[in-house]
Amino acid sequence: MSADPKKEESDDNAEPLDLVRLCIDEVVVVKLRGDRELKGRLYAYDSHCNLILGDAEETIYITNAEEEDGKVRTVKKQHETLFVRGDSVVLIAPVESIK
Amino acid sequence: MLIFSFFKTLMNTEITVELKNEVSIRGTIKSIDQFLNIKLDNATVVDELKWPHMSSTHDMFIRGSVVRYVHIPPDKVDIGLLEDATRREAEKSKAGAA
């Protein structure tokens, strides 16, 4: 790798998970498989995107297949400390980047 | 490895495991491995009316891959320690890749 220490933090050797590292102890939005979303404080993650979140609010989007009016019902659940298995994770975003 | 070590600190605590098929199981964590397979003792299904066929099982092994969430008692979690360990692990894996 580059000998220039400044280069270490530059964009050209940044990894995607570096964004997640900067989100530690911040509130993140996590989209999951199965029309689910979590918003909570990121305590820990690993390279599989296994996560540990605190004070997480889960939103489940339920579409009624029978009435094809496109209406989506949401169910919200509050969790204190939650481990999320990485294979369900679709994306992780810092909350201020979602507008 | 970090998450595995974290679960090892939760040994013998009451947790609720939510599976990908919507079943939630509450029990005492007795063992964990690198795949995050979990062995639960005194396990009960949270919504027994909805899942009556599960109520006869007490000690169980849960394959890691079918887990969606694990609900952890907040008093068992040292947040500062967890965050520092995560940062250290991130640095380490980056150094290893470089």
Automatic annotation (TrEMBL), chain A:
Gene3D superfamilies per UniProt: 2.30.30.100
Coiled-coil residues: none
GO MF terms held by the record: RNA binding
Subcellular localization(s) per the UniProt record: Nucleus
Pfam families attached to this UniProt entry: LSM
GO cellular component, one term: spliceosomal complex
Keyword set, alphabetical order: mRNA processing, mRNA splicing, Nucleus, Ribonucleoprotein, RNA-binding, Spliceosome
Chaperone as UniProt keyword: no
Residue ranges of domain Sm in the record: 15-98
SUPFAM superfamilies associated with the record: Sm-like ribonucleoproteins (SSF50182)
Example of a GO biological process term: mRNA splicing, via spliceosome
Function: Binds specifically to the 3'-terminal U-tract of U6 snRNA.
Family the entry assigns: Belongs to the snRNP Sm proteins family.
Subunit relationships: LSm subunits form a heteromer with a doughnut shape.
Protein name: LSM complex subunit LSM3
Species whose genome carries this gene: Clohesyomyces aquaticus
Automatic annotation (TrEMBL), chain B:
Gene Ontology MF annotations: RNA binding
Any GO CC annotation of this UniProt entry: catalytic step 2 spliceosome
Keyword Nucleus among record annotations: yes
This protein's UniProt keywords: mRNA processing, mRNA splicing, Nucleus, Ribonucleoprotein, RNA-binding, Spliceosome
Lineage: superkingdom: Eukaryota
Subcellular location: Nucleus
Alphabetical list of InterPro entries matching this protein: LSM_dom_sf, Sm, Sm_dom_euk/arc, U6_snRNA_Lsm2
Primary location recorded for the protein, binned into one broad class: nucleus
Pfam assignment, any one: LSM
UniProt record, GO biological process: mRNA splicing, via spliceosome
Ranges of residues in domain Sm: 2-76
Purpose: Component of LSm protein complexes, which are involved in RNA processing and may function in a chaperone-like manner.
PANTHER family for the chain: SNRNP CORE PROTEIN FAMILY MEMBER, U6 SNRNA-ASSOCIATED SM-LIKE PROTEIN LSM2
Family membership: Belongs to the snRNP Sm proteins family.
Protein name in the entry: LSM complex subunit LSm2
